[in-house]
Design a protein that fits this description.
Blueprint (H helix, E strand, L loop, with lengths): L1 E6 L5 E7 L10 H15 L58 H17 L3 E4 L9 H11 L6 E5 L4 H7 L5 E5 L5 H6 L2 E5 H18 L1
Length: 215
């Protein structure tokens, strides 16, 4: 069993949260986590690089001067890649780097990444999280109380909270995600995981339902 202390927004311990790690994943496959992170990184590439070939740059296609009798090396047109202002010999073209691993592998990697946060002591469970109005100072004070003001943090909540999103969007190093929107890249990219009790309950139910469906 994994036992994690539960803290409130002021940083006080208010209890413990226990769960069976097998509910999330039976083990952690580092190779799978690596493959999924590489996939997300590749999908983030824009791929809009483009340079002009010798056929696309401006300039005459005529020879600069005659082939023989000048005492100089033979030369082609001004568009040749060896001349200033000429085209590129191997011009770059826009590329699509996106690809997709199997859905089961991606879901399993997300659960493994979530489990790794608890095993590495990089996860904190919040008893509750509620903001009546959008105010950045509230989130800043909470992170200081929890000792997370000097590190990157992923804040996982059960559902959509407009006040929380607006309160945290100007704070560097913090990302907010719903439990349903978590992925392995987001979990591993941020150093600390701050998850509400309701969000963790939702993730455990979702994992159990997925295992039942596969079984």
């Amino acid at each position: 069993m994994i036992s994690v202390p539960v803290r409130d927004q002021s940083g006080n311990d208010v209890g413990t949260y226990e769960f069976d790690p097998a509910e999330l994943a039976g083990s952690i496959n580092k190779q799978l986590l690596h493959d999924v992170v590489v996939m997300y990184e590749a999908n983030r590439r824009v791929g809009t690089v483009k340079t002009k070939s010798r056929g696309q740059v401006r300039g005459s296609t005529a020879k600069l001067y005659r082939q023989k009798g000048t005492g100089r090396a033979r030369a082609g047109s001004a568009r040749t890649p060896i001349r200033r202002g000429g085209g590129h010999a191997f011009a770059k073209r826009p590329l699509d780097w996106t690809y997709r691993l199997p859905k089961k592998a991606i879901k399993m990697a997300t659960r493994m990444a979530l489990l790794s946060k608890f095993l590495d002591g990089e996860a904190t469970v919040l008893d509750g999280l509620k903001f009546d109005a959008p105010k950045t100072r509230l989130v800043v004070d909470m992170l200081k109380a929890l000792g997370m003001s000097e590190t990157t943090c992923l804040l996982a909540i059960d559902g959509y909270d407009a006040n929380l999103l607006m309160s945290s969007r100007n704070i560097p190093g913090i990302e907010v995600s719903s439990a349903a929107g978590l992925n392995a890249y987001g979990l591993l990219h941020q150093r600390q995981l701050l998850v509400t009790r309701e969000a963790l309950d939702s993730l455990r139910r979702k994992s159990s339902a997925g295992d039942a469906a596969q079984g």
